[in-house]
Design goal:
Elements (H helix, E strand, L loop, with lengths): L12 H10 L5 E2 H14 L9 H7 L3 E3 L3 E4 L7 H14 L1 E2 L12 E3 H12 L5 H8 L7 H11 L2 E4 L2 E4 L9 H4 E2 L6 H7 L10 H4 L5 E6 L5 H9 L3 E6 L6 H4 L1 E11 L9 E2 L2 E2 L1 E11 L1 H12 L8 E6 L6 H5 L22 H11 L7 H7 L7 H6 L10 E8 L10 H4 L3 E4 L10 E4 L2 E4 H16 L17 E2 L1 H16 L32 H12 L21 E2 L7 E2 L7 E3 L2 E4 L3 H13 L5 H9 L10 E3 H10 L9 E5 L5 E5 L4 H13 L6 E3 L3
Parallel strand pairs: 9-16, 9-17, 10-15, 15-16, 18-20
Antiparallel strand pairs: 1-3, 2-3, 4-5, 5-8, 6-7, 11-14, 12-13, 18-19, 21-22, 23-24, 23-28, 25-27, 26-27
Helix pairs in contact: 1-4, 4-7
Length: 698
């Protein structure tokens, strides 16, 4: 049975918007584009987009691929109204067979909507849909319910009880040449263009197949906006500038600046002074016109116009919203209006100094497409290219791309007015796993960075109700895939305390210290100014293991010191390192390292014995008599007394706090090497505690 449209899901406005959100907004190398789609598709809970869902996306004209590139339909995120308008054109022009309906084999393709319009006008109240399908297709047709849904929602006809009727009685009859198409049924690009050949939300198909000339990448800090731009333009010439409150027109375009030069000294008569047979020279301050980022990019882009195929030149503006754009751009603002050919709609006249320096750089250029460019401005009746190369006007060429970044959470920003905004395309960069496998390394404990990011963002959003304050994957920079204590405090903790929670308070559970006191910022540092590792660990675990987190965001385990090294506090030999990454279950559940597993075992015991006091639990476990671990489980009072007497700076890192059902606290040692964990396993096996630890076989 042949299918004129994919059965995966009904085509709908919601589905179109979903597809729009997962595809890149620029033509992309095919493999990179597919990776991008798969990654975004997973955020919607889907798997393997390119097994079935892709077919509906392609049939809806959302994208097409050739051997090398993926071409998306839209160069921006569309609204509901725009999606609706698009589907109205698509539904009227959809034809089959097409490149995605291999099961239909016939010589000509048929525009289904147009055929049915004529069918309804010719047959009237007897216009059977089933009979129409027989007339359109030489094969028996399946998925008719999906097809009917598409037509009822997005075409000119209505199908009910197998009868085809017109939604609009005034609809004219289509010519046979509009209904039956002699097309290459395997040509994906032709299908892509045809289904939305009329004017629609994206205006022209050609517009969707080129990179946005002016684009602002925006999103939360650390999402990789600058990195993405860098990656996209790495093969091309580029010029960069970072905006800040003191940036102005002269530092963006160019201006006269003082510089020192060495000149010959002359006497009153104008003669060069000679001493000891050598010219006497002096240093003078002179003023020279110094080109800045915009002018450098502008001149380089026009130089590329000497080539048959001009290469792109990029002007990259970092932190565009940290400068006063109205002041910085000045009259250049007018150049941002681009026509369909990518050139500025309107030229501006530069001042004399700027004109002179542009002419100096461009006057000898021979522009290959001079006539074609002049034709764009034929109403001017002037040689526009000649005026450009002689510096009489400024005009952005179609190979000059201006891309910028914007952190939506930044403070002390200048407002950007709507007139400026509408001259840019906007690309939102989501917070996502960059799959770098970065780790937070604090002392002997290691945490997954992405798991932490997800967890802390849950609390940030809960407090602020804004995604702008969330952390992106690249918020903190790892060195050799490790984020150390210094980086974590100076970047993450500093940001959370100064830019996020200062306005919302620090009373939540994630800010609770060892004695339920509030973690102050200074508590993350010790007396000598270095990071307090125990406090950092406490904060990270407060976040990652919080009961307030959804189960999907909770970390299941932490790589503790047992997975990498063991510090044996009881043996005279001092430090001892053993490599061991075995994982263990507690009562057949979980996956823990050898240091975490005992804690989980005690936690399980306390859960099944909620009536027991801290003293009773401590006594029960200590009586197991694990070699060299007299403090396997301690009450809070016992632990704190030892803390007073201890000179060990890492004392508090060697046990983990467990809060019991009655509110009491016990501390469970994490000082386990392979020998000790095996001894504990053995003793639990013969004890009557209702808890066991077992090795997970590799």
């Amino acid at each position: 049975m042949a299918d004129p449209i994919c059965r995966w899901r009904n085509s709908s406005i919601k589905q179109l918007i979903e597809f729009n959100s997962i595809f890149p907004l620029l033509p992309t190398e095919k493999s990179q584009g597919r990776d991008y789609v798969e990654k975004n598709w997973k955020l919607f809970g889907g798997n393997n987009f390119f097994t079935t869902p892709y077919q509906l996306a392609a049939q809806m004209g959302v994208y097409y691929e050739n051997e090398s590139f993926m071409f998306p339909r839209f160069h921006k995120l569309i609204t509901i109204d725009e999606a609706s308008l698009y589907l109205q054109y698509w539904g009227k022009n959809y034809y089959a067979p097409n490149p995605y309906t291999k099961s239909i084999q016939q010589e000509k393709s048929v525009v289904i909507n147009k055929f049915l319009v004529n069918w309804a006008k010719d047959k009237g109240i007897t216009a059977s849909f089933s009979e129409a399908l027989n007339e359109m297709f030489s094969s028996e047709i399946g998925n008719t319910d999906i097809l009917i849904n598409m037509l009822n929602n997005f075409s000119e006809v209505q199908i009910k009880d197998d009868i085809v009727s017109l939604k609009d009685a005034s609809t004219t009859r289509y010519a046979d040449s509009d209904v039956w198409l002699e097309v290459d049924q395997n040509d994906k690009e032709e299908f892509f263009r045809f289904v939305c050949k009329d004017k629609f939300v994206c205006h022209k198909i050609s517009d969707t197949l080129q990179k946005p000339l002016q684009q602002i990448y925006f999103g939360a800090p650390g999402t990789g906006k600058s990195h993405e731009i860098k990656d996209r333009i790495k093969k091309h010439k580029s010029f960069r500038i970072t905006f800040h409150p003191d940036t102005d027109y002269s530092s963006f375009v160019g201006a006269y600046k003082p510089t020192s030069v060495e000149v010959r000294m002359r006497d009153m008569a104008g003669h060069v002074i000679i001493e000891d047979g050598k010219e006497v020279k002096e240093t003078k301050i002179v003023y020279e016109y110094v080109k800045q980022a915009f002018l450098n990019a502008y001149i380089e882009a026009w130089k590329e116009q000497e080539k048959e195929t001009p290469q792109p030149v990029y002007l990259v503006i970092e932190e565009i919203n940290r400068g006063n754009c109205a002041q910085i751009f000045g009259d250049i603002f007018q150049l941002l209006d681009r026509n369909s050919n990518g050139f500025s709609d309107y030229a501006i006249v530069p001042d004399a100094d700027l004109s002179r320096h542009v002419k100096k750089d461009l006057e000898k250029l021979v522009i290959v497409n001079k006539e074609a460019i002049n034709a764009i401005y034929e109403e001017c009746e002037e040689d526009m290219v000649d005026k450009v190369v002689n510096g009489k006007v400024l005009l952005l060429p179609n190979n000059l791309y201006i891309w910028a970044t914007m952190n939506t959470s930044d403070q002390s920003l200048f407002p950007i007015d709507s007139a400026f905004k509408r001259r840019w395309d906007w690309k939102y960069i989501k917070i996502a796993d960059a799959h770098k496998n970065w780790q937070i390394k604090i002392g002997t404990k290691t945490y997954d960075w992405w798991q932490f990011v997800q967890a802390i963002n849950y609390f940030v959003f809960d407090a602020t109700q804004s995604e702008d304050k969330n952390l992106g994957y690249f918020f903190a920079k790892a060195k050799d895939s490790i984020i150390n204590a210094e980086t974590f405090v100076s970047k993450v903790i500093f940001y959370l305390y100064t830019d996020v929670f200062k306005d919302y308070g620090f009373s939540g559970d994630i800010f609770k210290g060892a004695n339920d006191d509030e973690m102050t910022f200074q508590s993350f540092y010790i007396a000598d100014g270095s990071p307090c590792e125990s406090q950092i660990i406490r904060f990270i675990e407060n976040v990652m293991f919080s009961d307030a987190l959804p189960e999907s965001l909770k970390a299941t385990a932490v790589v503790d010191d047992e997975d990498i090294s063991v510090y044996d506090e009881d043996e005279a030999v001092g430090n001892r390192t053993t490599s061991n990454r075995d994982k263990y279950m507690v009562n057949g559940v979980g996956s823990y390292g050898k240091c975490r597993a005992p804690f989980e075992a005690v936690k399980t015991y306390a859960t099944i014995n909620p009536q027991m006091t801290a003293s009773e639990i401590a006594e029960k476990w200590t009586n197991l008599n694990v070699n060299h671990l007299p403090h396997l489980v301690e009450t809070e009072q016992q632990f704190e007394q030892r803390a007073v007497d201890s000179t060990d700076t890492k004392f508090r890192d060697k046990a983990k706090q467990l809060v019991l059902a009655n509110g009491e606290i016990v501390y469970v040692s994490n000082q386990f090497n392979p020998v000790r964990i095996n001894e504990l396993i053995s003793k639990l096996a013969t004890a009557d505690l209702g808890v066991n630890i077992s090795l997970i076989e590799a």
